[in-house]
Amino acid sequence: MYPSNLKSRPSIHSHRSSVAPESVFGSAPVGVIGKHKPREVLRIERDYSAGEICQFWSGWIWELEGRVTPTAYQTTLNELNIVLASAHDPYKSCFDNVLAVLTLYTSPQILGSHYEREMRKFDRVLERANREIYNPVGLNILSPRRNAFLFVSLALCWRLSSLKLT
Question: What is the residue-wise DSSP string for 25-92?
Fold first, then answer.
């Protein structure tokens, strides 16, 4: 069925890594945030162990060794997971809907919904973590809103001297 002269393809995954063996995670970062494309993107998948609750897996990824401490990484993902859990709280959504009906749907325009407020908080937590923890070591966490919260992308590309932190 297949030609016999084809060599078997080597596995792109090593036994310790979630990225290809020719990974750039051991090398020095290059480029500028927002100007150059990342050299490599690492996905942090959703954690379905608690059912359909929107949360991300907060286990340690060894590619981050030497750049970020496990505590800082886990704290960041736990903060993001807490905000997501609050945003998807059914009781607060019901309260928002009842309040909207009682105010003839003027409360969502004045106050915004609980979900919108929590998503703004999520963006602030993500921006702060990037500014204080990840950008100085050449990493950047991309917002999972771009991919329907299926995964968080962690991009590697930047040189420390080229970062423009404000």
Answer: TTSPP-S-TTTS--SEEEEEEB--TTSS---B--S--GGGTTTS-HHHHHHHHHHHHHHHHHHT-HHH
10 Å CB burial of residue 152 (0-12, 13-18, 19+) is buried
Helices 70-87 and 114-129 cross at an angle (nearest 10°) of 170
| Sign of the dihedral defined by the CA atoms of residues 142, 80, 56, 86, in that order | negative
How far apart CA 96 and CA 107 sit, in angstroms, is 8
Structure tokens at 118: 């929590």
pLDDT tens digit string along 59-102? Answer: 888 888 888 999 999 999 999 999 999 999 999 999 999 999 99
Question: Between residues 26 and 93, which one has the greater pLDDT?
Answer: 93
CA distance 130 to 48: 25
Query: Residue 60 and residue 62: Cα distance in Å, rounded?
Result: 6
Determine the distance from the C-alpha atom of residue 63 to the mean position of all C-alpha atoms in its chain, rounded to a whole number: 15
Tokens coding 84: 């997501």
